[in-house]
Amino acid sequence: MAFSRAEAFAPATVANMGVGFDILGLALGGMGDRAIVEFQDAPEIVIADIKGDGGQLPREPERNVASVSARAFLDHIGERRGLKIKLVKGLPLSSGLGSSAASAVVTVMALNALVGEPFSREALLPFCLEGEALVSGYHADNVAPCLLGGIVLVAGITVDAIVPLPVPECFHLALVTPDYPVPTSEARAILPSVLTLKQLIHQTGKVAQLVDALHRGDLEALGAAIEGDTVVEPARACLTPHLTEARAAAKRAGAIAVFIGGAGPTLCALCDCESIAERAAAEMKRVYSQYEMRSIASQTLVDQVGAKLLKLD
After folding, report:
1. Domain ranges, residue 47
2. Do 137 and 197 have their domain in common?
3. How does pLDDT run across 174-209, given as a tens digit for each residue?
């Protein structure tokens, strides 16, 4: 059966989980992007509409992550027809919530369904990475959890390098995103280019402790490992307004640990129940309100499904 239109959803993600720079990521329940794709006879790919971006995202197909990913997919299968792509952005831009990854993944997910699903979900990863590379280079720490769901270890950019990790019971997150965009390029540029041997040993040890804590379901040990970062967060703290106050507020509410989501400025507080997550989110938002800074706060779980097809006709 031939289809002419497909709609898909892709969740928000947060990368790094503190110490796991570029090698850890997780998908968030609830928020995300939608895309509607349909074939057109002309060979061009057209960004027909984008809602929710405030006019900030490029409409030129060679500069938009969704169309670049779609082009990689179409070229691979030898499809000569073009596409119309409509994006509905449910994620704030430059927020540390994987907005560019979601745009790439949701488009490729819909397109794969439109042509009869010739590829498995895992096999879509390379096409998604082509779009993501426009923003942050070839890094799968957002794309992989967005596509596959869950918490993932990302040891490279090929499918065999993506390892799903356990999601402990009672793993809740409180989130706050202040209205203070942090472009990924700026957040990467501020990082140190050289580490001492002592720093390397410390960071790799904390990553090992984090993975161990996930497998044992030990949230206290997980929180300690997450907050053990001595390289990335210290460098990026200046890009995350009121980090110290927000962390303290979340912990007073009962949060176990607080880390910067991806490039930031979103802050994620690890909690062991929904009620604490709700309080921690409210308290972090209160910090930003005291400084007359707008923010969005919520509590959520790990999305263990990843991108999904919504409609096909």
Report:
1. 5-165+303-312
2. no
3. 999 999 988 888 899 999 999 999 999 999 999 999
Do you find a cis peptide bond into 265, omega within 30 degrees of 0? yes
**SS3 (DSSP) at 298:** strand
Q: Are residues 92 and 221 in the same domain?
A: no
Mark whether 120 and 198 lie in a shared domain. no
79 annotated active-site: no
Catalytic, 62? Answer no
102 & 240 share domain: no
Q: How far apart are CA 67 and CA 263, in angstroms?
A: 23
Report the distance separating Cα 49 and Cα 226, nearest Å: 39
Per-residue pLDDT, 137: 84
Catalytic residue among 13, 107, 177, 184: 184
Residue 2's pLDDT is 65
The pLDDT, as a whole number, for residue 184 is: 85
Asked if the peptide bond before residue 181 counts as cis, ω within 30 degrees of 0, the response is no
- Counting the structural domains of the chain, the total is 2
Closest CA to 33 of 90, 86, 85, 84: 90
DSSP run (H or E) holding 210: helix 197-216
Which stretches of the chain score pLDDT less than 50? none
Give me the catalytic one of 132, 266, 283, 300: 132
- Quick one: pLDDT at residue 183? 87
Same domain, residue pair 36 and 126 = yes
Q: What is the pLDDT of residue 41?
A: 86
Same-domain check for residues 131 and 23: yes
